[in-house]
Design a protein that fits this description.
- The protein is α+β, with helices and mostly antiparallel strands.
- 36% of the residues lie in helices and 20% in strands.
- The protein starts with a helix and ends with a helix.
- Bound molecules: 2-(butylsulfanyl)adenosine.
Length: 681
């Protein structure tokens, strides 16, 4: 294709993709299938690869991310990013209204909006393009997070509306919808990572990720709620909001022009009723004087505008009795106290348990058994006890004391000085710790033996078939066939049967066998060395090249690696100084795991080198992720959709009809998992 023809094509494709993107993410009214959308995007990406000079910094292909921001630059806001005064009662709102009425002395209108609970963002558009996105920071200057913001599909990268201003700035809130939040936390738990406490923290954490392709997967969203420009052609805030909607921005439909404070109260009540059902978090309502001229007349106090205020809903509380306190032991041995309560309905759900965090928090509350307590469901997922009604305490009530022995293995608990957490030091044989280590080891990003997940490891540990990660490699068919158990989820009470049938056992054993091809960097991550995450494992694997070199590295040698600090160096030494760990590591070596980078199949090597694969459907022997790992471990490349460049489609049961059609029309060979095994040999 000629450059000129490609330029036309890139332009037309970008326009079409932007339109469909708008229909899907802003209007929620898609008119084409996800598949058709993906095909267009793939075509654009491939053209931009072929003609790099045609890649625009605001091309819709940038939504998938890929840019790394090493350090978020501090940028001064052109218009300071203000915050609002808070009110918590109608009286305070009436006071606000009286102040407004007194200062204006004439008619005025309010605009009521939701107070979104996310991260404030300032978006700058110049000549129809998003040029910068900056967080609030201290209001005067914030961090530039443009690369990450570009991955949010509902934020236009270009504005083509003929009436749009040549230069303007927007204020809005980046948030994580409940659905994305639940998905992210489930994923985090699966990977044995600490889940985010609430969607706000998840949104803030996501915006600060260095790799924008990870942000792209977090499914953030953004509502805009303010327009700023040097010569605004509008007289009211409401007109600005309407214009922004026309220009292609996403605004929340819950907003209202109000004639007076009574009208504002109606809006607050209405939203209060709907709040629990909204698909995102809000913590109140924002009330703004509509006319810009009147806003100017009212001006600012030293901290806040006098023309706007927020009304915050009270956190919903319950009052109930404490039955007892139980203690949970986590993967790292940390012991968390949990209050068991008489069930009480709060904000649409029944609360039976509440976190007590740690011994210090428990002491602060001065809890006694049978106390009547106040519980609160704030923005966090876990409800908390906020107070005790000591007036209701029975005489002679027994104070709750933090346990001294591990509830799982009876080992005496330890506490590091300066740390509020108690932990069980018996890391080698305390059951939840063993389970946590094994679950981390088999997780997708580590050894990817996911056919062993969902309660199966628990069953193997209970039947003493495995005591540590190395035991996995000694498992034999006859050891585990026929094991079964009904498992009850401690939180939801749901029951599930876990059983080891012929097919399951075969799958598990072949997945364990397959894990011997997992590259060294992931083996290192899988070992579960404290503080050693995925990125660090990659760095260390690259730097030292083998486990032996890493094990023998001095503190100085460790500290010489980028991003390795004292804490990490100590943790690595502690791990390899432990004889129990050394024994396990040696058994893993004997089992044939990859302990050096050279041993791992390098990119460009392997029987599948140079071939690209699309994996679709449900398989018998492996999970879809395991098939992908197998292909990559043997040098093949995984693609998400079929194109002329695809070498093979590996198909299982229920392969999508669209994919089947596409493979047929492009004459791409479709192979089974057995045929794939055959190719690998
Ligand atoms: S207007 C001068 N509108 O609340 C007006 N803010 O305390 C400044 N927020 O940092 C902000 N929803 O993060 C405004 N509809 C809304 C909002 C909103 C959430 C947040 C924003 C800001 C904080 C102000």
């Amino acid at each position: 294709m000629e450059l000129n023809e490609a330029r036309q094509k890139v332009k037309a494709l970008s326009k079409k993709i932007n339109e469909h993107n708008y229909r899907y993410y802003v209007l929620a009214e898609p008119v084409i299938s996800d598949y058709e959308f993906d095909m267009m995007l793939e075509e654009l990406i491939s053209l931009e690869k072929q003609f790099p000079e045609l890649l625009d910094k605001n091309s819709p292909s940038q939504r998938v991310g890929g840019q790394i921001t090493k350090k978020f630059a501090a940028v001064k806001h052109k218009y300071p990013m203000l915050s609002l005064g808070n009110t918590y009662s109608r009286e305070e709102l009436l006071d606000f209204d009286r102040r407004v009425a007194k200062a204006l002395g004439k008619d005025y209108e309010y605009v009521c909006e939701l107070k979104f609970d996310g991260v404030a963002i300032g978006l700058t558009y110049e000549n129809g393009e998003l040029s910068r996105a900056v967080t609030r920071g201290d209001g005067v200057q914030g961090d530039e997070v443009t690369n990450n913001i570009k991955t949010i599909r509902s934020i236009p990268l270009t504005v083509e509306h003929p009436e749009a201003l040549p230069a303007f700035e927007l204020r809005g809130e980046v948030f994580m919808p409940h659905q994305s939040f639940l998905k992210l936390n489930t994923e985090k738990e699966k990977q044995s990572e600490t889940p985010f406490a609430n969607p706000r923290n998840a949104a803030a954490g996501s915006l600060k990720l260095q790799d924008s392709s990870l942000v792209s997967k977090r499914q953030l969203d953004c509502f805009v709620y303010g327009l700023l420009a040097d010569d605004l052609p509008f007289n009211t805030h409401w007109e600005s909001l309407e214009a922004l909607q026309k220009w292609g921005f996403k605004l929340c439909a819950h907003r209202k022009k109000c004639d007076g404070i009574e009208d504002v109260f109606l809006f607050i009540d209405e939203i209060g009723k709907q709040r629990a059902k909204l698909p995102f978090d809000i913590d109140g309502v924002v009330i703004k004087v509509n006319s810009y001229a009147q806003q100017e007349e009212l001006g600012f106090t030293s901290k806040f505008p006098r023309w706007a205020i927020s009304y915050k809903y009270k956190a919903e509380q319950g009052y109930t009795r404490l039955i007892d306190v139980s203690y949970q032991v986590g993967r790292t041995g940390a012991v968390t106290p949990v209050a068991n309560l008489e069930p009480v309905p709060v904000a649409g759900t029944t609360i039976k348990r509440a976190s007590l965090y740690n011994a210090d928090k428990m002491q602060e509350l001065d809890l006694h058994f049978n106390d009547m307590v106040y519980v609160e469901k704030g923005g966090d997922i876990i409800p908390k006890i906020i107070g005790v009604d000591t007036g209701q305490r029975e005489p002679g009530a027994i104070p709750v004391q933090f346990i001294t022995q591990c509830p799982e293995c009876s080992t005496t608990l330890a506490k590091l000085s300066g740390d509020a957490i108690h932990y069980c030091p018996n890391s080698m044989s305390c059951p939840p710790q063993i389970q946590g280590k094994i679950e981390h080891f088999i997780s997708r990003r580590a050894m990817n033996i996911e056919s062993l997940g969902q309660g199966k490891t628990e069953l193997l540990i209970q039947h003493k078939k495995i005591h540590n990660i190395a035991d996995l490699y000694d498992l034999k068919y006859n050891d585990i066939i026929g094991l079964e158990k009904v498992i009850e989820d401690t939180l939801t009470g749901k029951k599930r049967k876990v059983s080891f049938q012929h097919k399951t056992v075969k799958n598990i054993l072949s997945a364990i066998e397959g894990s011997k091809n997992v590259p060294f960097e992931r083996v290192l991550f899988a070992l579960g060395i404290r503080h050693l995450g995925e990125t660090m494992a990659k760095k260390l694997a690259k730097h030292f090249g083998s486990l032996d070199k890493l094990m023998n590295a001095s503190t100085e040698e460790l500290l010489a690696v980028d991003d390795v600090g004292e804490k990490m160096a100590t943790s690595i030494h502690e791990f390899f100084d432990d004889l129990g760990n050394i024994r396990i590591v040696e058994r893993l070596r004997q089992a044939g795991l990859q302990f050096s980078a050279e041993q791992s199949i390098a990119p460009g090597g392997g029987t599948l080198a140079g071939k690209s694969f699309v994996v679709s459907g449900v398989f018998e022997k492996y999970s879809r992720d395991e098939i992908k790992t197998l292909i990559e471990a043997n040098g093949g490349e995984i693609k998400s959709s079929i194109s002329t460049k695809t070498s093979f489609v590996v198909a299982g049961d229920k392969m999508g009809p669209e994919k089947q059609k596409k493979a047929e029309s492009l004459q791409i060979p479709v192979i089974s998992e057995d045929e794939l095994e055959g190719m690998i040999g």
